Amino acid sequence: MMPTALAYRKSRKLSSISYAIRGPILDKALELEKQGHKIISLNIGNPAPFGFDAPDSMVHDMTQNLRNAQGYSHHQGILPARNAVMQYTRQLGVNGVTMDDIYIGNGVSELILMTMQAILDEGDEVLVPSPDYPLWTAAVKLAGGKPVHYLCDEGSDWNPDTRNIRMKITPKTKGIVIINPNNPTGAVYDRCILQQISDLAADKGLMIFSDEIYDKILYDDNKHCSIASLSDDVLVFTYGGLSKNYRAAGFRGGWMFLSGPTEAAESIHEGLNLLASLRLCANVPAQYAIQSALSGQQDIVGMVGTDGRLCKQRDLIYQMMTDIPGITCVKPKGALYLFPKFDIQKFRWAHDDEFAFSLLENKHILVVPGSGFNYPDKSHFRIVFLPQEELLREAAHRMEGFFADNIQSN
Fold first, then answer.
1. Are 89 and 300 in contact (CB under 8 A)?
2. Is the pTM above the cut of 0.90?
């Protein structure tokens, strides 16, 4: 007699976790590729496959130190990497950051997960932007917390709605997440808005978690302000890394620093040190690239300037998409993404998931539906503008025809 088949199941805590950027729509794209279809992938901010190479100085420093990178490092990171981050905090205008306030991680993603695990107890609430980078929502849930989404205002260049933030604060709220420059909208937050958020956090005794991975990818002379520079009275966790500004996503090198009243955060330091020790250390070879990244020539500046490749590609896809009847978009001031909106009354799709899957199946273009970024209105989608102009033009032409073919009949 054959034994009854077993069903091995995932943890229940994963039942509400999603990551649409690599979710079911990517599975469908891979299936189509197996069938021989060539997919135009506009779904992920991975610079290297599109010809954006890491600076030679970073690669040189990493490879030259491979012999020194064979063993575990200090759980917070090697001294040259942490010292480079400390010097960088001074450039940002952030006061009082010491070597003990800095943690090196396997990309920003690990550090976000580690922070939430160190801070949150069951039921604690964290205010997360909507739309957000979905790792933030997932990290809060995995740590036993409750993500509470506050709105960013499309009519105000996607800046956070500070009144909505204030309304969402409860006695269980531990902190506020900001993503600046923003993924997926490309917003670069106004300094006055950041000051309001900082003042609100100080008034309510909240922490701030500031994801600044795109802080050098700025267009049209826009300026980035690190929220940690605006107050010494708020405990701020600031995150940066090699993946975007330095086009080295695969190196998995990131950093986090604490600022503000860190003397009151001894318990949090203990938690972070425990978690950092449990993972033994961050990828050591990549840590040797951090010093040359932060102190070397910032060649990203040329790429985002008026004649730079990234700026030209942003301008091209923005213009071509907004020329399509029924499509609107706030022009991104930073990052690598466009977040267009389609007129849900004009076209046949009831929501963004249906649109994105139909676009993939019919035109072989892979984008991410806006609801994957925890945005409620179901009529947005994210486009990555890293591919070369020729491919972006082809994608835009296909989408133009696709939208024309799917106008609702009266």
1. no
2. yes
